[in-house]
Amino acid sequence: MIRLTVGLILNILCFSECYKILVIFPTPIISHYILGEALASGLAEAGHDVTIVSAFQTKNPPNNGSYREIVLTGSSKDNENHLTTNLFARGSMNKFSAMAKLNSLGHKTVREALKHPKFQELIHSGERFDVMVTEQFHNDGIKPLAVHFNAHLIILSTIIPNLWVNALVGNPSPASYIPDYTLNYPIQMSLLQRTWNLVIKTAAYVNQHLLFYPKQRKIAEELIPNGLDFDSALYNVSLVLCNSHESVNQPVPMVPNMIHIGGYHIKPPKKLSQEFQEFMDSAQEGVVYFSLGSTIKPSTMSEDKKRAILQALGKLKQKVLWKWDEDYISDKPTNIKLAKWIPQQDLLAHPNVKLFVTHGGLLSTLETIYHGVPVLALPIFADQKLNAARAQEAGYGRYILFSEVTETKMDDALRNLLNEPMYKENAKRRSAIFHDRPVKPMDLATYWIEYVIRHKGAEHLRVAGNKLPWYQYFSLDSVALIILLMLAPLIPLKILFLLLKRNFIKAKQE
Ligand SMILES: *[C@@H]1O[C@H](CO)[C@@H](O)[C@H](O)[C@H]1NC(C)=O
Ligand SMILES: *[C@@H]1O[C@H](CO)[C@@H](O)[C@H](O)[C@H]1NC(C)=O
């Protein structure tokens, strides 16, 4: 109630810099919500009037500005359960089945979000916004809402700039040196790798245009009243905020309306609870922290992987803190402590953390670099393999594909990572790059969102490439024309040849 009153007063006092911002993160996956919540809270703290639509409820809403939540309750819960079952198997799914699965996940998420009574209420309220920020995750059907709300469209890419955003803003992403985000390829790819990368990127593009967009278009047309047409909404992007940064990701070209804000969700470390503080302080040999992230349920891993990991960790002289979703593991070595929830960011800040064993998710990777902690990545799916490959290339970590984990490989990697000072030094070096920015990433995001509003959609930043069909973008029509012109002089020659040949045959017959 008090918060509501403060919000109302601020609304009335709203200065010219206070804008109405709609943040839509419909994906029912915790790590996506974390990014949406961090952005919405950051904007509210900067004094804006923020409405966030997401699948989860915010535990500690910000005090400043105004922060209104529209929680997509109900259906998202079973979507979430459906999503989190069998994640370990996801890694071995072939790329084309994975694409199909993400398509159907996207259709389900968008349809359920747009149909949700609370969201429908907002859609039909007549309310207008200055900007609409939406995550980019198989939810393009949401974008025509920007037209409906009379708002400039801003996209937040939850991972590195990829196919899903590049085409919308005309950002170059050559298959020759930028691996698809699902591949664990090095930056300098072999011929075979480049070829497979081209195949995957082309298949993804074809899937996007021939399968995914038509269905999203239908959903949007059905559920958004004044959405104009889908395509003009889709390609009318004012700004792309990328949750990526050169300290962690491969450097790539970015058109002027793309900005790196990777790590903006990270808060300065808070004091640990007494339980964790004592555990960390008393670890004379240091601590190996182990977490497979917020979505994967570690207890669903196969018995042989579990044994291999327990055996390897049990041999360490370090203590191990393992995020585990059950109370108990049989035959647990004594140096391992289990916890269902761990304040990861605060824990990584503790000087006794020697190593982070991670699934290689982007949020965990950004957090470990923020604190300069080396990693052993055990990637499973999505962009985890790519992040893991980058960590190894940058020399602050090593990786073993989760599907290939054995006790021997774990022993070898752990021994190497814990004894070789190079990994820590490289993690510190990366951390220095992470922190060396003109302003904090959340302040940068706020600045650019306000900039878009001040300059009425900032159309002056957009490159023209996104308006061209693919054959024009790659100059294929020009190449065809050149070939045609080069062949043109040959045409009279060919006619002459045919005439001569005919006369010759005639002469022979006579
Ligand atoms: C709170 O919001 C106001 C604008 O309403 C802004 O001027 C002020 O700096 C904000 N305070 C903090 C702590 O961000
Ligand atoms: C495209 O975006 C600009 C700036 O946000 C806006 O002024 C314009 O109305 C939009 N056009 C369409 C067709 O949505």
Automatic annotation (TrEMBL):
* Enzyme Commission code(s) on record: 2.4.1.17
Catalysed transformations (reactions): glucuronate acceptor + UDP-alpha-D-glucuronate = acceptor beta-D-glucuronoside + UDP + H(+)
Q: Where in the cell is it found?
A: Membrane
Question: GO MF annotations for this entry?
Answer: glucuronosyltransferase activity
Instruction: Give the top-level enzyme category.
Output: transferase
One Gene Ontology cellular component annotation?
A: membrane
Task: List, alphabetically, the InterPro entries matched.
Answer: UDP-glycosyltransferase, UDP_glucos_trans, UDP_glycos_trans_CS
Query: Which residues does UniProt assign to the signal peptide?
Result: 1-18
Membrane topology field:
Single-pass membrane protein
**Main location per UniProt?**
membrane
Q: Does the keyword Protein biosynthesis apply?
A: no
Q: Which UniProt keywords apply?
A: Glycosyltransferase, Membrane, Signal, Transferase, Transmembrane, Transmembrane helix
Q: Indicate the transmembrane segments per the record.
A: 479-500
Q: What Pfam families has UniProt attached to this entry?
A: UDPGT
UniProt lists the family membership as follows: Belongs to the UDP-glycosyltransferase family.
**Identification of the protein by name:** UDP-glucuronosyltransferase
